[in-house]
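Observation: inputs received (chain + flavin-adenine dinucleotide).
Thought: call the complex predictor directly.
Action: predict_structure
Action Input:
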Amino acid sequence: MKYLIIGNGSAGNACANTIAAQDTTAEIILFSNEKEQPYSKIPLSKNCIHFPNLEKISFAQKNNATVVLDTVLSIDVQRKQVQTKTQRFYYDKLGIATGSTPCNPFHTGATYTTYADAKKFHDALSANDRIVIAGGGILGLECAVSFAKYGCCVTVIEKSDSILNQCSSAYTSLLLIQKLIKMGIRILVRTEIKDITSTYIFCSRHEKIRYDHFLVTVGNTPNIQLAFGQLNTRKGIVVNEKMQTSAPDVYAFGDCAEYSGDVCGLQYTAIQQGKIAGLCMCGAEAVYSPSITPIALQSNDFCFGSIGKVTESSYAALNKITGVYQEIFTNQQNICVGGIWLGMPVKNINGLINKPVNDSIFDIFPL
Ligand SMILES: Cc1cc2nc3c(=O)[nH]c(=O)nc-3n(C[C@H](O)[C@H](O)[C@H](O)COP(=O)(O)OP(=O)(O)OC[C@H]3O[C@@H](n4cnc5c(N)ncnc54)[C@H](O)[C@@H]3O)c2cc1C
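Observation:
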């Protein structure tokens, strides 16, 4: 059986390893448009001072898989073939794990998605440099914390009312802003970038910021161009619980896939989906069941964490002994649907979700 997988990231590799374990005679070809061996992106934004070398963060090699360093230009689901710049390949089963591309409405500055992007940024960086980061989401803030620790002078510009507005409450964001300010990071909310010259960034509030490096972290778009005209797409490539697309023998998973209306940008989800797709591509019975994954932003002296939906009504509490501030979010039936904490890491947080909010919940999320 011949399996082609487009994309050599977390999802593509999870799929290839699963197929290799299920079908020892499988012929597996992974396509990659990055020249590096497959690696985890997670460490790239975590610790600027010790920027990770590729060997340390690379995924284990697969046994019976070949990696073709060539960009796939098109797929033909009728003829069951894939066209790269130089060759045409036929498949029995096709997996699409093309990930996502950073949005850059400014058409200038750097983005931070691949090892090559991040390395280029780090190689050009010196302590005391002035960095402006557009976007106060988790990636922008991780970079801000990391560069501030390195000694850079960092400004984060966020156009909405608050930072981390998809995974935090307004109040916790405010507490977090205080922590970031203490680290020397400047945060401008409700601020839009109006113009960018080679030395200055001009903002909506008539502010002019001098910079050495401009980093854009304002979100990602799933890479679904290969699917246009071939597969059902919305935000991502639409898949069912087996990670099957609208075409027979074609599967999609990871950041490019849309399951139940959601496109998830997290590595754990990409790996889970890749494994389910790998099993189903080999004919095994498996279904994907989304799990709720916590998100964290950590520094030496604080940890922000968030899990689940954090938009409903909440209970808030401060543990006076540990200094941990936490909020529990409930639905109308008083069932916990999400949580946020700021302070030290909170363990076993997954058990919080779907629990009725009564005294026992505080065993998981202690006050
Ligand atoms: C800096 C950074 C930090 C992150 N931190 C976290 C974190 O702390 N926790 C977390 O859960 N998630 C984190 N993420 C997100 C996580 O890395 C992604 O969710 C995960 O990598 C998605 O895996 P994927 O395989 O779907 O896509 P990717 O890992 O993006 O892999 C897709 C691959 O497909 C290749 N490709 C695309 N199109 C083609 C084509 N036409 N032909 C050939 N190859 C192609 C791409 O070049 C890429 O190598 C982070 C991401 C970044 C960038």
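Thought: report the result.
Final Answer: Residues 267-281 form the longest helix (15 residues). Residues 6-12, 31-34, 41-42, 44-45, 71-72, 97-99, 112-113, 139, 223, 226, 254-255, 265-268, 270 surround flavin-adenine dinucleotide (CB under 6 Å).
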